[in-house]
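Lecture notes, unit on protein representations.

Consider one protein chain, 184 amino acids long.
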Amino acid sequence: MEFTLRKGEAKGFVISRGQTIKISCKSGGQLSDLVFLNYHQGITLDRIRRFILKVDDELFDVNEEAVLKVTSIDSESNTNILYPGCRRRLYKEHFSKEKDGCRDLLASALGINTSGLPSTVNLFMDFKLNCSDYSFKTEISRAKDGDSVSFKALKNCTIAVSACPCEADSCRSEGDILVEIYDD
């Protein structure tokens, strides 16, 4: 199965244990978020001990079970678990705009309230860390056409993927996200 997400779209779906999900940036710089039901950012951080993902890292659920494993990262940009995903309130406070962010889009795609949505995995999102005051700032993505990140499902799970709707600041992005799900 494969589908394309245009900027500001999200889709939820189920994948089975052993399947691979590949998320590709069809146009350089388009950001994407991924989440699965019961994902737990804190447990994942505790287990891998960093917020930038690498090949062979695993993402954990609320029961401390590994659900997805990173099998490839073909991009110079970051795949990270630092941000919770943009949201309607953030757009209103920072940009005086009334629009859904990735959290809103992902929750809708999964048919749940945003309050029940876990933090997200951020694909193709770059940032700069300031170690002197422990702050971080989002930067324009270095992702190029065709960059991709792949995950293998270690158990059956319900996932949603979004193509970031942001039009301002360093998260601004243009283009489509290609999602491919296949058996190995």
